[in-house]
């Protein structure tokens, strides 16, 4: 049953569980073409999260800033295409949360290893904030921080587990969020890591 965590934000616990192994297989296929890498922030520090992308647009960061682009900066080639299992999952989850017709053009693949985290931020590099975001957790559990529309609002901690899908739209779309440091663990399908797939409409 959908769990509403705020207006516009819905957790679909274990929604992706039955397709988790297929999703992980596709992550393997995509990251063979576009390897996971720790990108640099505009401040010049390497992120602790390793990232790759698939779809028409990929999210990148370097010392020039954050943006979407159609080519992988490592290879200079277009990002691997959006895979059907990815697109279908994102569409079905959005629909289950009340957002019909979601058609992502970007999937960011985040890999967290023990010690990796993502500080509080807003997702605001997309053109249309009326489009929702769908995120999928695979492997180890990690605590998600769900804040307010202003950075100074104290976030709520929400543990996310293997197969959980979260849909963020409407008034929740620009909320601050992050994830706490991943603790060491061993998951039968992913070993020492958590993967997060984040589906967005960039353009
Ligand atoms: C809440 N990733 O890649 S996904 C990111 O677990 C990112 O890898 C985290 O934040 C992760 O930008 C969290 C969940 C998420 C994504 C977008 C949101 C939560 C959101 C947008 C608004 C509010
Ligand atoms: Fe984010």
Automatic annotation (TrEMBL):
Gene Ontology CC entries for this record: cytoplasm
Keywords: Dioxygenase, Iron, Metal-binding, Oxidoreductase
Protein's recorded name: Alpha-ketoglutarate-dependent dioxygenase AlkB
Cofactor detail note: Binds 1 Fe(2+) ion per subunit.
GO biological process, one term: oxidative RNA demethylation
Xref: PROSITE patterns: FE2OG_OXY
One Gene Ontology molecular-function label: broad specificity oxidative DNA demethylase activity
Chain coiled-coil ranges: none
Cofactor(s) required for function per UniProt: Fe(2+)
Taxonomy of the source species: Bacteria, Pseudomonadati, Pseudomonadota, Gammaproteobacteria, Pseudomonadales
Binding-site residues, 2-oxoglutarate: 110-112, 194-200
Gene3D superfamilies to which the protein is assigned, alphabetical: Alpha-ketoglutarate-dependent dioxygenase AlkB-like (2.60.120.590)
NCBIfam families for this protein: PRK15401.1
Domain Fe2OG dioxygenase residues, every copy: 103-203
Binding positions (substrate): 59, 66-68, 125, 151
